[in-house]
Structures are given as C-alpha cells and as structure tokens.
Amino acid sequence: MDLEKTFPEGSAEDLEAPPLSLSKMAWMRFRRHKMAMFGASLLLFLLLFSFAGALFFSEGYANYTNTDIRLTSPNSAHPFGTDPIGRDILARTIYGGQISVIIGLSAAFVMVFVGIFVGSISGYFGGWIDAVLMRITEAFISIPRIFLVLVMAKFFSNKVPDITIYGSTFSGSVVVIILIIGLTSWMSLARIVRAEFLSLKENEFVVAARSTGTPTWQIIFGHILPNTIAPIIVAATLGVASAIIGESYISFLGLGVQPPTATWGNMLDGAYQYIQTAPWLWIFPGGLILLTVLSINFVGDGLRDALDPRSRLI
Amino acid sequence: MTTNIGTLLEVRDLNVCFHTPEGIVHAVNGVSFKVLDGETIAVVGESGCGKSVCMMSILGLIPQPPGEITGGKAYYKGKDLLGLSEDELAPFRGKEIALVFQDPMTSLNPVLTLERQVTEAIIKHERLDKNNARKKALTYLEWVGIPDVGRRLSDYPHQFSGGMRQRVMIAMMLALKPSLLIADEPTTALDVTIQAQIIELVKEMKKQFGMSMIWITHDLGVVADLAERIIVMYAGTIVEEAGVDDLYKRTKHPYTLALLAALPRVDHRRDVAKLRSIRGSPPDNLNFPKGCPFAPRCDYVLDQCWTSKPTLEYVADGHLAACWVNVETGKPRL
Questions:
Q1: Taking the domain A23-55+93-307, which CATH number applies?
Q2: What is the DSSP code (8-state) at residue B93?
C-alpha cells in the first residue's frame, strides 16, 4: 500500500485558506460592485486628467490672457476653446480640477476631523457635555447652510494671504473656502459618530479596556473609534463630493476662489452670459463637476455596501 | 487605618446603589470581606444578587451615574480604592487587580488584532517597547495553550473560538502579573468541556503564579475544588461565608442549602429525583421587605424573620451566617 502518494503534501492546516482581514474582505466585496468599480475607474481617470495634465500645460499658460483669440470655439490649438479673455479652457480645467479636488479632500478632512471629535466626545461622555455639544450641532444645522457659507465667504475673503506650496501659488481664498465648507458640513457626521459611540461604549470590551488601566482618550480613539470606521469612510467619501459642489456654487456666485486661480466653479462664473453663444465655457467645467461628483458617489455607495458589517457576502 | 499583615484586599461595609427612573436600586448593601495573600475565594449567588457590581465598584468600573457608591471602604494593600479618581485608579487596574469577564465573545474588541489588544496593556504597565511586549505576549499566549501563536497574533477575535478567546483574556491578564485576579463568571458562556479546560488552566495558573483570586459564579459545583473560602450572596448582602468543607458539609444558611439542593448530580437517577429549584424569585431591589430578604422563599422561616433582618455573625469557628434559624434543628438560634 502506498497511500501517502494519493494525498497532497503538507498538513491540513497548510491547505486551509489564510484568514481574511476586514479590509481584505471589504476590498473583495467592493470589487464585485460594478457601479463602484466604474466610479473608481472614472475617478482615477479624472485625477489623472487634472494632475498628469499639468505636465503638458504650465500654470502660467492656464492664466495667460490673449484677447485676440477671445471666445474661440474648440479647435485643434484650443481643444476646449477659449474664454472671454482668451485663456485656454483645457489648461484651466486641468488646473481648476486640481484646486477642486484639493478643496474637496481638504474640506472633507476638516469635516471628518470636527465630526469625529464632536461626535465621539459627545457620545462617550454623555451627560452635560453631550447636551452642550449636541445643542451646538443643532444650532449649526438650523442655520441655512448657504447663508452661513456666503456670509463667512464674504467676511473672510481677502483676509488670508496667498500661499506658495511646492512652487505653485494658491489664492488665500482656497484656504478660506476649505475651512468654510469643512466647518459647515460636519454636523451629520458628528451625529452618526455619536450614535455609534452611544451603542459601542456599552460593550464589554470597553469595560475590559478600562479594567486594564487604558487611558480614556485611548479608549475613545484607539478602541471605540476603529469600530465606527465604516460609516466614517462612507461619509468622508460623500463629503468630498459635496465639498466640490459647495466650492462650485460659492465660486459661481463670485465669493469663492478668486481669479486668476482657476476652479471648476469660478469658471462657470460668467459663463452664464454665454450659455447659448459659447456653450464650451460651461460644458467642460460643468461636465467635469458632474462626472467627478457622480463617480465619487458611486464609490461611496460601493464602500457603504463593502464595509457593511451585516453583509456576509464575500 | 491599617489592615492585618497578609490581607490583600479588605472590603468594609460596601454600599452601592443605582439611580433608575423607577427609583433607587440597592445593589450592594453593607458587604464586608477579606482576601488574604494567595487565597482563592468564590462569590456565589443568583443573577442580580450584586456579586459583579460589588467587584466592579472596587475598581471603579460601574457606570457613575447611574451607579453610586454610597458608602464603605476597599483597602487594597492598605490603600482605600473607593476614594480614588479614574486617573489614580489606572495603575491598579490590570497591574494590581485584573478582571476576566464573563463573555469572551464580547470582551475582546472585534476590530483590533490580537497582538494590538494583548500588548497594549503590557506596553503601558511594563514600559516595554513593541518588540519586547510582543515576546512577552507570545510567552503567555503559549502558556495558556493557544496553538501556533506566532502566526495567529495578527488574527482578529472572530477567528477564535469562545474557549480560545477566554484563554486570550486570561493570558492578557496574566502577562501583567496582577496580585489579585477577579474572574467574573469566566466559564458561564462556555460549554461544559471547555469550562473544565479553563478551570484546569486556572488551577495550574494559581499553582505557578500564586496570585489571590476572587471567582464570581452562580454555580456552586464549579468552585468546589477551586476555592478555599466561599461567600454566598443574596439580595446584595452576604448571607454565609465559610471554608469550602464547612460550607458544603455544615451549611448554616437556608439559602445555601437551597442552592446546593438545586445542583444537578451525576448520581441522581432521573426517575427518582427531579431537579430542584428555589421557589419564588429574588426580591425586588427597589423596595426590600422589612425583615430577612430571603424569608418569602425560605423553608425554615420563623415569625421574627418577617420583622427584623439578621446580621452576619459567627455561628461556628470561621463560619459566618446571617440567619435567625439553626438549620439543623429548625429552631431559633440563641
């Protein structure tokens, strides 16, 4: 009898599939989500467009005015046409995209930071701390966001000097817009985080952590917060999209990022005079906003499903 | 105030209550006991009799509010723990007094790896760097019998079975070398064979590390060969306290007798003896009856039981009981 040869080499444990970590499981689920994968690819393409495109056009070129060629329709020299003062729209959408994406990410970061801070403190400690923080949150919610944003934009514009990072100059208004959008959008995230904390803090693992002398801040941010990461990632992703839209409408109203720094939003400002006569003025930046926000929302949807702990699909 | 030499923990007249919308729930009412160096005591009682709350309050782990420690002292190595703030208690938690919880399925954080959870407290209390803490964690995880530890350190709790998780919890606490280990029904959530394994592990641990231990349980059978002294609690008070042999063989309190009678026995034939239960249910902690809280369920109840509450007194050498009745004769004790 030569049984040994009929079995594969190695013990049973070697044949066992390696256990999947939570992030690997989420990634597998995300990959199966067709819309999310489509959104992610589109988003990647748009990021490439904005950041790799900068290798082909200088920022100086994007801001270069030449009134001789004002309002030319798309042609081989200017594939997206030119604007009322003769700037190349393709170059401006590329640089505008960078600013819009930077604003979107930074504003979402501000939002997540404030939201997590308020929500976790409020939910963990409860009592009067919770009462005070939640009343503040409600106050922010009850002020119509657009008024708050416009008043803040008007008030703070031109109060922040221009800043230079890695050789490119950003209008100080970019920072103002980031803060304004971030500081007016954290409320719903704070409520989500608070609700998560309210239920998670009752878990035995929190008492177990306390019983080994873990400091409170570490229990909040090291033990409970990692359990709420799924809704936070989803909210942050969708926050990027809404920050890009927010930037667009503030800039469209002329209170946002100031020219010559281009953003998709301030490119739309002024385009409305030429809606019929020069549609390329709004089609390209408007279309890019639409595609970016759409793709981010698809990704957000995919993440929501992938990170849902109740979903046991792999 | 100082305590006797050899006394590790002395709790005096501990009172804990909870403020609820229905009123004040008196969870622990005047509990006093001692734990000597290297001694194992068991605290036995029905659900809701205050045994967990009592131990948790010593470490300041009951939620306050709604909980409130309304009185008492808990001297640990001569220092009263009840007056300490959260920060002052931190060095005692884990390092001096460690807790093992009832349900290993919920007492580990589901989203953190084993390594992170086991090393965290070691890093904090022993002031070790990550690598040394990892080595130490490995030693203890191996000691409690986790197979293939090196590879499993990066696993998450859901990849372990209940028994394994309880071993992990025990390893976590052992690594801190506490002087007192409080085990809050550590085997209740496990099935019987795993329960036996964990008890063996704990016995081995006591032999090797020699710490004191408080074992909270509602099962008198579990602690018979584990503890040296047993405290029986009912409705937030201690009703009987004695060495293991005395408690099982010379029981002095009707409640303990009833608990013992309720134990299933291997040598009972099913057709002869039905599993006995204690009639009635524990008193409502919101408003205790005037007399002995056990009176409505007691087989030996006397007239005076309804009007005045018995205090915990010595009824034999090293044997305390709170009862008006001499259970051997059924007559009032003099």
A1: 1.10.3720.10
A2: B
Please judge whether B121 and A19 are an interchain contact, meaning their C-beta atoms are less than 8 angstroms apart: no
ipTM of the modeled complex: 0.79
Burial environment of residue A233 by CB neighbours within 10 A (0 to 12, 13 to 18, 19 or more)? middle
Q: Do B93 and A227 make contact, defined as CB atoms within 8 angstroms? A: no
What distance in Å separates the CA atoms of residue B176 and residue B91, rounded to the nearest whole number? 11
In the predicted structure, residue A102 carries a pLDDT above the cut 50: yes
Decide if A203 touches B, using CB distance below 8 A. Answer: yes
How does pLDDT run across A154-206, given as a tens digit for each residue? 787 666 666 666 656 666 778 888 888 888 889 999 999 999 999 988 888 88
> What is the distance of C-alpha A25 from the center of its chain?
23
State the alpha helices, DSSP H only, in A58-203. 59-62, 89-125, 127-142, 145-156, 172-183, 187-200
Residue in B109, B127, B166 to test binding to A, most A beta-carbons within 10 Å: B109
Inform me whether the pLDDT recorded for A231 exceeds 70.
Answer: yes
Confidence of residue A279 (pLDDT cuts 50, 70, 90): confident
**Is the CB of residue A124 less than 8 Å from the CB of residue A197?**
yes
Is the Cβ–Cβ distance between B213 and B98 less than 8 Å? no
Domain boundaries, chain A: 23-55+93-307
pLDDT the model gives residue A189 = 93
The answer, for A213 touching chain B at a CB cutoff of 8 Å, is yes
Q: Does A32 touch chain B (CB under 8 A)?
A: no
Instruction: Please compute, for residue B152, the number of CA atoms within 13 A of its CA located in the half-sphere on the CB side.
Output: 19
Check whether the bond before B147 is cis (ω within 30° of 0).
Answer: no
Residue B214 backbone dihedrals phi, psi, to 5 degrees:
-115, 120
- Which residue did the predictor score with more confidence, A220 or B69? A220
Decide: B118 and B168 in contact? Cβ < 8 Å.
yes
* pTM of the predicted model as reported, rounded to 2 decimal places: 0.80
End-to-end CA distance of chain A: 42
